[in-house]
Amino acid sequence: IMQDTKKFFENLSGAGKSIGVLTSGGDAQGMNAAVRAVVRMGIYVGAKVYFIHEGYQGMVDGGDNIKEASWESVSSMLQVGGTVIGSARCKDFRTHEGRLRAALNLVQRGITNLCVIGGDGSLTGANLFREEWSGLLDELVQSGQISEEAAQTHSALHIVGMVGSIDNDFCGTDMTIGTDSALHRIIEVVDAIMTTAQSHQRTFVLEVMGRHCGYLALVSALACGADWVLIPEMPPKDGWEEQMCHKLSENRADKKRLNIIIVAEGAIDQNNKPITTELIKDLVVRCLGFDTRVTILGHVQRGGTPSAFDRILASRMGVEAVLALLEASPGTPACVVSLCGNQAVRLPLMECVQMTQEVQKAMDEKRFEEAVKLRGRSFENNLNTYKLLSHHKIDAELPRSSFNVAVLNVGAPAAGMNAAVRSAVRVGITEGHTLFAVNDGFEGFSKGQVMQRKLTDHYDFFWYSFRTLPAKHIDKIAEQMRIHNINALLVIGGFEAFESLLQLVDARSRYEEFCVPMCMLPATISNNVSGTDLSIGTDTSLNAIVEVRLNFGPCFMLTCDRIKQSASGTKRRVFIIETMGGYCGYLATVGGLAAGADAAYIYEEPFDIRDLQSNVEHLTEKMKTSIQRGLVLRNENCSENYTTDFIYQLYSEEGKGVFDCRKNVLGHMQQGGAPSPFDRNFGTKIAAKAMQWISKKLKEFYRKGRVFANTEDSACLLGMRRRALVFQPVIQLKDETDFVHRIPKEQWWLRLRPLMKILAKYKTSYDVSDSGQLEHIVRLRAKDISAI
Question: Which of 389, 691, 410 has the alpha carbon at shortest distance from 536?
Fold first, then answer.
């Protein structure tokens, strides 16, 4: 029955259709990945796909600016920043005559489907073009430039948009293509500046892009723990200068050797007057006498290679855009492919544009709270989290409760754990609780390695995490819970943390000390915990896979991306890479999608020697064309017999005369390095939400002078499920888990595997049941805004 209800894209044919793809407006990292996905998906379904170079200008000028794309023409494009097909501001397209010329150029090539990658201005122009289309064709018929038959054949123009903008200033989507990569550039600079600022006890004022939207400034401030942030949507109240200087001097008094202030380029005060970096510098120097420097990041934020997140987002959106074009009818309105939580959705383009314009109107009219709500749930939740963490009250002014909360890390390390601990401690203290940090996981807990934390504590270190499960020391842990009067637990970790919570819940019948609210935050690079689509640490690990330096000899140190480029400059070469993940193939699959892999071997999708042989033959045929590099990923536990060495030797032998092979086992470098902006932000937000849940449960279960919680919903995992963050009882998640292989029984990302195969030119079946029906932005917000 389940099989019968599924919808497969094989039923959607692109035969006889032509798709034009263009990038317009400001460039953004990830645009090339979107172009690549549109081209390959379009060709895969039988359509012709055309590059429209230089955006709308190329559409108006025609000629060589509109060229048919081939499968090979988008090779080695995935890892390149900017847009290789060019982008330009086009005055001609704003005129009726310019759009008439553009229509003629499209009709001459049979293009009636447009995929536009750009900002709200570019997408608005596309929608106007669509509305005028029939009139433009009538004019072309009357002038004799096209026949009536051609006008009838091309009577409808279908438009699908993808938002490419580093500012994340488009309503209707949680993230736009390029935003995550821009955050990478900002955080790289902030991390570098922090070392020099600490050395000289300096204050740094950083200006980031965002003329009309403060998303980059806000999220980078959250990710790096900035002392102050100024954004257009939240002008500081009168007297902010004194408050900011007081906060900076407080931090210096707490022996913090640096201050970071982040300013969006469009920051304003309550009177809509600009707040510039120089104004802030002069203020700090005049009032505090601190050595203060200004850094303006500028177009650095647009540059560099796209992050793993942007590559995956753009690839998913590009495929969804082609599906939307195939399903479009003459009456289908222009739509934009958006991201809601972890799900691709389609929204009417003009609803999103109108709401985006309403944001600016609200800001111009000083209705700033309304502007924040119009920005969408992602922006609003980031802002609310920032307000929680930027508590300016001193300890004596904080509320007091009688509750003690312990925070601990369990299992293998994952980048972003520190951000989660910092957020949990700060929010817990501002809610009035006494916060304890436990070192060395449950093993440290049993030994009494429990320390009280303060609001002014710094978290530029790692709370060590052990894999020991509590059952081994259950008596001693219960004793420490009693000694420190622990009323709630926040456990951060992977599968060991999940098993630990189950053991503590099971022990409640024997130890009343564990009858307290308990919450788990998933933090593991393997992303193998039931109840969540994403885990803290996975994004950093994915970036390690696509960017990590691989050592293929004493002097041969190259990144994955540079490896692909190096092959095109020398001989044809295939790289066999082993990833971590235990029995979970998330890293191999999603990393393969981000890196443009030709194959990814995982435990969840059994394979045999015939499959390996087929893959080798497929890759050999590809390498006989202009494609000169190949990438094969293998999950460490995908097969007991088909080891990395075996696969390397097989490809080496079968590829003789066509390509040679190199192999590398990435190992624990996937767990190391600085956390990505996504993991810092994700860890910060879910830890804050978890601590608020704990506060609510503590009040709910406080009776007769003590906390007593033994219901299923008092021990939960907080996870991302499709569009929302959801608290789920760990007992209920037990049935969803394969404990032998330490993976969930159902894993959402397996639906991405056909997408990876399609982009690698394999014939496969792709379930598009989740591909969105057209939704409406107002209904979407009303339904989901309270969920995250």
Answer: 410
User: Do residues 291 and 201 lie in contact, with contact meaning Cβ atoms separated by under 8 Å?
Assistant: yes
pLDDT in tens, 750-780: 999 999 999 999 988 776 666 666 887 754 3
pLDDT of residue 777: 73
Question: Based on the number of CB atoms within 10 Å of its own CB, is 740 exposed (0-12), middle (13-18) or buried (19 or more)?
Answer: exposed
Residue 26, marked binder: yes
Structure tokens at 636: 């460490």
Flag whether 20 is marked binding. no
pLDDT value at residue 463: 52
Report helix, strand or coil for 68.
Answer: strand
Largest CA distance in the chain: 91
CB 648 within 8 A of CB 387: no
For strand 743-744 and strand 450-453, is the pairing parallel, antiparallel, or unpaired? Answer: unpaired
pLDDT at 783 over 60: no
DSSP string, 79-117: T--S-TT-----SGGGSHHHHHHHHHHHHHTT--EEEEE
Quick one: which of 223, 261, 217 has its CA closest to 243?
A: 261
Distance CA 32, CA 76 (A): 10
Helices (H), 666-729: 677-700
Q: For residue 228, how far is the Cα from the chain centroid?
A: 24
Q: Which residue has the tokens 């809610």?
A: 431
Q: Is 202 annotated as a binding residue?
A: yes
What is the percentage of the chain residues whose pLDDT exceeds 70? Answer: 91
Hey, what amino acid is at 659?
F
The catalytic position among 27, 167, 180, 310 is: 167
Please give the Cα distance from 69 to 525 (Å, whole number).
Answer: 37
211 annotated ligand-binding residue: yes
Neighbours of 357 (CB within 10 A): 14
Which residues are registered as beta bridge partners of 579?
635
Residue 671 among known ligand-binding residues: yes
Residue 528 annotated in ligand binding: yes
pTM of the complete model? 0.92
524 labelled ligand-binding: yes
What CA–CA distance (Å, rounded) separates 23 from 35? Answer: 8
Q: CA of 545: how far to CAs of 549, 586, 615, in Å?
A: 9, 12, 21
Tell me, yes or no, if 167 is annotated catalytic: yes
pLDDT at 253: 82
Query: Which pLDDT value is given to residue 753?
Result: 94
CA 369 to chain centre: 26
The pLDDT value recorded for residue 314 is: 96
Within 10 angstroms of residue 530's Cβ, the number of other Cβ atoms is 23
Give the pLDDT confidence of 731-745 residue by residue, as tens digits.
999 999 999 999 999
Q: How far apart are CA 710 and CA 712, in angstroms?
A: 7
pLDDT tens figures, 228-267: 999 999 999 989 999 999 999 988 887 788 899 999 999 9
